[in-house]
Amino acid sequence: MQKTILITGGAGFIGSHVVRRLVNGYPEYQIINLDALTYAGNLENLKDIENKPNYQFVKGDITDDDFIQKLFRKYQFDGVMHLAAESHVDRSISNPMEFIMTNIVGTVNLLNAAREIWKDDYSGKRFYHISTDEVYGSLGATGFFTETTSYDPKSPYSASKASSDHLVRAYHNTYGLPVVISNCSNNYGPNQFPEKLIPLAINNIKNNKPIPIYGKGENIRDWLYVEDHARAIDLIFQEGKEGETYNIGGNNEWTNIDLIRTLCKVMDKKLDREPGTSEKLITFVKDRAGHDLRYAIDSSKLMNELGWKPSLQFEEGIEKTVDWYLGNQEWLENIVNGTYENYYREMYENR
Ligand code: NAD
């Protein structure tokens, strides 16, 4: 069936994989990618599909209420997949207000605009909010986050995402807006901005620079390959039950230090370096304030109800990721030149 779908944040890391999947997989859909192109947005991520007839890019900011209302009136979207966000915990610690504006106010602008054009006739309509497992707070050594775990966000980033999740649910409960939400664990893979752990380490190893690790590297995260997340998002958008939440995870927990040691071994092999060379670059730095100890996701609802499961083992995913970064040096260099350098120095070199 013909549909016009808005994807917000489609020039970012996960959004670009979702846009590509939808544009290639559903030629009958018209995909509108709305993105403000902040430091994290990069249209290079979508070079391969930019001329497809069912794809259009619109530059714009979800915090601009007027603009959002006009956009919705113009395109009369049938569905919204909302990924636009400020997404980096460290940046939320130094500048929380941008996170409040984009993640909370921006989300409410989209909810209001959807309500307005759908005018309470919700048949065939869907508002899909993409969120994070960080809203659940931190786990001890055992246990998993499920869809009924109480929210307990600890950083300005996770608090802003928790707030937007609550608002999306409130619009469902109050106005009947047909929403669905998913909360996913840490993603990795091609096109991730090199402020996040894995691409940052790949870039530093390649350039023989120290790899900064917070504290003792004991924090535990669950990692999922980004294309597996995009596949889950596609499935939930098509088949998820209205008003429901789905947790998405890789069942793949690593301490940061073990993950980086594994990555170092792959990098030594790919760069033809003596085994152990990259590991020497590991440097422990002062821990992040309020650093959550462990996140782990129980995705059995998504697996049992919709039949999703991760397709890649971590070792395979990390090798694919390294190959992508080493094969796309220009993409990386365009990013790490300029303002990134100042940010990097502030975050890691003056600690
Ligand atoms: P990202 O930072 O790579 O991309 C975010 C995109 O949103 C960028 O293209 C940016 O330009 C755009 N954007 C930011 N502010 C905007 C605004 N005001 N108006 C319009 N566009 C704006 O983020 P990501 O890692 O791809 O994450 C995408 C979504 O998935 C986020 O909502 C995030 O909370 C969620 N998520 C991320 C992860 C992860 O591991 N990266 C895990 C779970 C959930």
From TrEMBL:
Its cofactor is NAD(+). The keyword Lyase applies. Residues 6-321 form the NAD(P)-binding domain. It comes from the Bacteria. It catalyses: dTDP-alpha-D-glucose = dTDP-4-dehydro-6-deoxy-alpha-D-glucose + H2O. One of its GO terms (biological process) is nucleotide-sugar metabolic process. Its EC number is 4.2.1.46. Keywords: Lyase, NAD. Gene3D superfamilies: NAD(P)-binding Rossmann-like Domain, UDP-galactose 4-epimerase, domain 1. It is an enzyme of class 4 (lyase). One of its GO terms (molecular function) is dTDP-glucose 4,6-dehydratase activity. It holds the Pfam family GDP_Man_Dehyd. Belongs to the NAD(P)-dependent epimerase/dehydratase family. dTDP-glucose dehydratase subfamily. This is dTDP-glucose 4,6-dehydratase. The lineage of its organism: Bacteria, Pseudomonadati, Bacteroidota, Bacteroidia, Marinilabiliales. The gene is rmlB.
